[in-house]
Amino acid sequence: MVFVPSPTHGGHSVTPVEQPPTPVKLVIAGGFGVGKTTTVGSISEIRPLTTEAAITEVAAGVDDLTHTPGKTSTTVAMDFGCITIDPTLKLYLFGTPGQDRFGFMWDDLVEGALGGLVIVDTRRLDDCYAAVDYFEHKDVPFAVAVNAFDGEVEHDLDEVRWALDIAEHVPLTVFDARKTGSVRDALLVVLGVALARAEAAGAP
Ligand SMILES: Nc1nc2c(ncn2[C@@H]2O[C@H](COP(=O)(O)OP(=O)(O)O)[C@@H](O)[C@H]2O)c(=O)[nH]1
Ligand SMILES: [Mg+2]
């Protein structure tokens, strides 16, 4: 909060002026159908901007729908939503398109991001490796969250960490993409690693 002279009192008194919350950009990544669009939609305080398109017969042949038979749409560019965490902090969430063929967009999406959340579906671990690998190489702080579809996780977390080659310092949790509180907790973990990185880099 800052104080500015109040014009109505000849500049002698001060009126508190609320500072807008600090904007923080986070990227929500992971393979096709892991729950990225659901995650952004569960927590966004604005109607999320999404670029869903109907899955065409052509895409159905390209994208693996085995574990998402009910999925009739897919994100062609990105998801966008935001959530005010407290009066000082507002998160801007950018969900990546899951398909490899949209990989060219990732560099633009992570530009300026303070952190990332990689969502994992334990039935299709392979699909999530690219996202983990990407954040590692770009040196963007990130956390990994297993989306417990219907409360079920097929592998225990140690196995997931091993299979995806997730470093020990990277937090790995289980969450439910459909539940606001659960998504919020997962995002707070990402904020934690982003903050730790900023502090390590000597930020005030
Ligand atoms: N049962 C269940 N379904 C989910 C969950 N998260 C997402 N879904 C469904 O799984 C499908 C894929 O989710 P979506 O958010 O579109 O995945 P995206 O491709 O990563 O954006 C959708 O039909 C969702 O409704 C979950 O936690 N449990
Ligand atoms: Mg999507």
UniProtKB/TrEMBL annotation:
InterPro entries: Gliding_Motility_GTPase (IPR052705), Gpn (IPR004130), P-loop_NTPase (IPR027417). Belongs to the GPN-loop GTPase family. Keywords: ATP-binding, GTP-binding, Hydrolase, Nucleotide-binding. This is ATP-binding protein. It holds the Pfam family ATP_bind_1. CDD domains: Ras_like_GTPase. SUPFAM superfamilies: P-loop containing nucleoside triphosphate hydrolases. One of its GO terms (molecular function) is ATP binding. It comes from the Bacteria.
